Amino acid sequence: MTLQFDDEAALAMERMYQTPDVVGQRARFHQALALRHGESVLDVGVGPGLLAREMADCVGETGRVAGIDQSADMLAMSEKRCDGLAQTDFSKADASELPYPDENFDAVVSTQVYEYVPDIDKALSEAARVLRRGGRIQILDTAWDSVVWNTADPSRMHRVMTAWDEHLHDPNLPTTLGSRLREAGFSVSHCEVIPIINASFHSNCYSHGISAAIRNFVNGRQGINQEEASAWRNEFKEQEERGQYFFSLNRYLFAGIKL
Ligand SMILES: C[S@@+](CC[C@H](N)C(=O)[O-])C[C@H]1O[C@@H](n2cnc3c(N)ncnc32)[C@H](O)[C@@H]1O
Hints:
Elements: H1 7-16, H2 20-33, E1 40-44, H3 50-59, E2 64-69, H4 72-81, E3 88-92, E4 105-111, H5 120-130, E5 131-149, H6 154-164, H7 174-183, E6 186-198, H8 206-218, H9 226-242, E7 247-258
Helix pairs in contact: 1-8, 6-8, 8-9
The structure holds S-adenosylmethionine (SAM).
């Protein structure tokens, strides 16, 4: 079973997505998207609603920010965060079956969602359907093969990360995303890498939060038990004391235009 976005996961994700690492990533995402006042935008897999809340300010009261998510707990967070903003609306729906008419939005965005969707090509064709001609799509996804994590036990690290790959459908979606976007009817106008680098294991960095999620998820997979999963994460605390901690991962931003 892949990662479940229930209430507990939603709270942990909300914390992680407010670390400076992810705040910086969102800032770059906004800059590339350059939303204008009055535009309508759909956020596919809106999650805790941090991006949606910021986009609501960009489009203003004459614009629209719609968000869909399959998790009721995530949607509740988005609704609370955007409470009182008439330009926002949220619906429980699957990325592969969007509850909107054709050519309804100026932009469709999605950050760290399509890798969880079983039929990614269907989801991208749905995004194309609801976008107006000339409208833009912007997607950010992680390549989990890009992780560089210092360890004295590479074999354990390999098993843990192999088990973690089971938390989603496609752990390396960016490698095929450009061709999939073209197949779905987009031209790809821009692609860039957004790295996260942590040289210290402190509680307000991305890898502190994600390593806790990984430790919890891998327990019982690939022959890993709770003790080993905890030992894997405890190594980072020991490294931090010795000044040896290092983590990095790459996220990829793709922008496209509906032809
Ligand atoms: C890693 S979170 C990212 C949340 C948000 N986009 C962000 O970057 O803050 C993934 C989100 O995608 C949602 N999700 C996963 N698969 C989905 C699907 N098939 N349809 C709709 N939402 C989905 C999850 O419920 C979760 O809220």
